[in-house]
């Protein structure tokens, strides 16, 4: 998994990072509300660990802000606040889980794995738009210039991944991990084959492809 930690306590952040990296996860760490927001917007993470008390704001406000701009990454709030009212407030602001300090690292790890497997509630009925394309995650429909397109499940999943990360290049390896899982070994050129099928359905004759190839890196859809 790729995990983002937003924690102002440098000692706790370092302990979490070391522990999770020993579990073979990729971990990015930020220490403020501002840098955490930018990282969550710009990066592609499987789960976010978010402290409530931050030097330039509070984690609940950051959580709500991310949800309001369409970020659907599962969020686990990590805090010393253990009252029922605080927990309810965390969930109301968009958190998916809530763990109080002090905590067991193994429990934290298990919760993160469960969150990464859980479909995000905020994905339902979200509409993504890139140029002439409109993708509705709730109805699993894709339209181009208002015309409904018929896509296979994998075609839809790949297009959704690219549109959720519009403007960013998605590598072939990352696409494989997101669509099939890190342990799956697909046939050679399976990503290229799905991209080719998508282009046949999305692109008008002699027009520039909506899914762009970045040679030697991967694919992207412009915003």
UniProtKB/TrEMBL annotation:
Domain OmpR/PhoB-type stretches: 125-223
What residue stretch is flagged as signal peptide? none
Q: Which domain of life is it from?
A: Bacteria
Q: Name one GO cellular component term.
A: cytosol
Keywords recorded for this protein, A-Z: DNA-binding, Phosphoprotein, Transcription, Transcription regulation, Two-component regulatory system
The reply on keyword Transcription is yes
What GO molecular-function term can you cite, just one?
transcription cis-regulatory region binding
Under the heading InterPro entries, the entry gives: CheY-like_superfamily, OmpR/PhoB-type_DNA-bd, Sig_transdc_resp-reg_C-effctor, Sig_transdc_resp-reg_receiver, WalR-like, WH-like_DNA-bd_sf
SMART domains linked to this entry:
REC, Trans_reg_C
Response regulatory domain sequence ranges: 2-116
Look up the record and give one Gene Ontology term from the biological process aspect: regulation of DNA-templated transcription
Residues with the 4-aspartylphosphate modification: 51
Q: Which PROSITE patterns match?
A: OMPR_PHOB, RESPONSE_REGULATORY
Specify the DNA-binding region ranges: 125-223
Q: Which Gene3D superfamilies does the record associate with it?
A: 3.40.50.2300, 6.10.250.690, Winged helix-like DNA-binding domain superfamily/Winged helix DNA-binding domain
Tell me the protein's name. Answer: DNA-binding response regulator
Q: Which organism is it from?
A: Ferroacidibacillus organovorans
What lineage is on file? Bacteria, Bacillati, Bacillota, Bacilli, Bacillales
């Amino acid at each position: 998994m790729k995990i983002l930690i937003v924690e102002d306590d440098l000692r706790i952040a370092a302990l979490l990072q070391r522990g999770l990296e020993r579990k073979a996860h990729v971990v990015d760490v930020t220490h403020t509300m501002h840098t955490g927001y930018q990282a969550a917007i710009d990066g592609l993470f499987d789960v976010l660990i978010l402290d409530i008390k931050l030097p330039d704001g509070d984690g609940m406000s950051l959580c709500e802000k991310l949800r309001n701009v369409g970020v659907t990454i599962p969020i686990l709030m990590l805090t010393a606040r253990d009252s029922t009212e605080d927990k309810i407030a965390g969930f109301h602001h968009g958190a998916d889980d809530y763990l109080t300090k002090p905590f067991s690292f193994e429990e934290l790890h298990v919760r993160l794995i469960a969150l990464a497997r859980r479909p995000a509630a905020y994905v339902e009925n979200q509409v993504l738009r890139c140029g002439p394309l409109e993708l509705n995650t709730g109805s699993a429909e894709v339209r181009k210039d208002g015309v409904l397109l018929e896509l296979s499940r994998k075609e839809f999943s790949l297009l959704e991944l690219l549109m959720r990360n519009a403007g960013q290049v998605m590598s072939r390896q990352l696409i494989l991990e997101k669509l099939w899982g890190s342990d799956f070994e697909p046939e050679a050129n399976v990503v290229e084959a799905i991209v080719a099928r998508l282009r046949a359905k999305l692109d008008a004759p002699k027009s520039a492809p909506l899914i762009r190839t970045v040679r030697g890196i991967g694919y992207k859809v412009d915003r």
